[in-house]
Amino acid sequence: MTLERPCVRLADLGDPGETSRIEDFVAAQDGSVFHRPLWLRAIELGTGQKALGLVAERGGHLTGWLPLTDVHSPLFGRALVSSGFGVGGGILAELQEDVDALSQAAQELAQRRSAISIELRGGEAASHWHRIEDKHADFAADLAEDDESQLKWITRRARAEVRKGLRNPLEVVVGNDQADRNAHFAVYAESVRNLGTPVFPRSLFAAVLDAFGDDADITTMRHEGRPISSVLSLYHRGTVLPFWGGGTLAARQLHANERMYYELMCHARRRGCTRFDYGRSKTGSGPYRFKKNWGFTPEPLTYWSWSAPGVTARNIDPDDAEYSAKIALWKRLPLRLANVIGPLIARGLG
Questions:
Q1: For domain 7-133+302-314, is the CATH number 3.30.450.20?
Q2: Which residue in 162, 238, 283, 289 has the most C-beta neighbors within 10 A?
Q3: Cα 5 vs. chain centroid, distance in angstroms?
Q4: pTM, full prediction
């Protein structure tokens, strides 16, 4: 029996019935949090970058989904990203014919919107697209059955750092009210400035927290009342994803970052999670080695890209040599100035 060809169209993300149908499809396909229309809408509200999506249907039944964010910037150009500001996304479909149809439709959409490239952070794509392997890896593992077992799960060397943090007079605060949001932004902004990268707009974090409700929160470590490390985490289908996190220079001395992630593991298990997803890191980088040192096994990620004929895809890789001088300069910026300029740049990175 020959299957009918898929019909591909733009999703109506303003229609609650359409978004609910897509949310159900994402859940049935075991998609990531970054596949969810909820994520796309939060990104649009928080950054102003347009939420889009393509659906494939057969006989009225949804058989494929490609979430997209139209990310445009005067500095980096325009690209369709799946999914914008996330580390996952791409095409969800069981049949290669649907993958090919969605890939073709995405190319046509990119050209209509004058996007120079398409970036898929996961899934599959048409065979003629550029396949990117061995550049990033994800780190995830099941949570242990109790706090002590979780501590013992961590490798011996990393466990020693966590224990140092446990001995220090640090307060653990978990929440998502305005005080938690202010603390997180202050810590995260200082952390990324010290790394030489611009901070995302405060509105992005607020939009994600508001959209996800109980499925997002902030864990902050305070020393003498002052926040020194903080992470915004997402909860999706029994997995906790610490996503936007950082620490000040004081956090290093007090081992606050190590303790924070251990405390988050315990907190996530108590709220019913069974898995901890430490997120992606660039292969061979400092964060890659840090997570591997904790006992996580790197899982290589496959990404895809397509560029319009005769056009070079945008380059937003901070490790690229062309950005080294700019990163060095950014590290020297006063924090207040970096927090004013940074969001104007970062909302165009996606």
A1: no
A2: 162
A3: 33
A4: 0.94
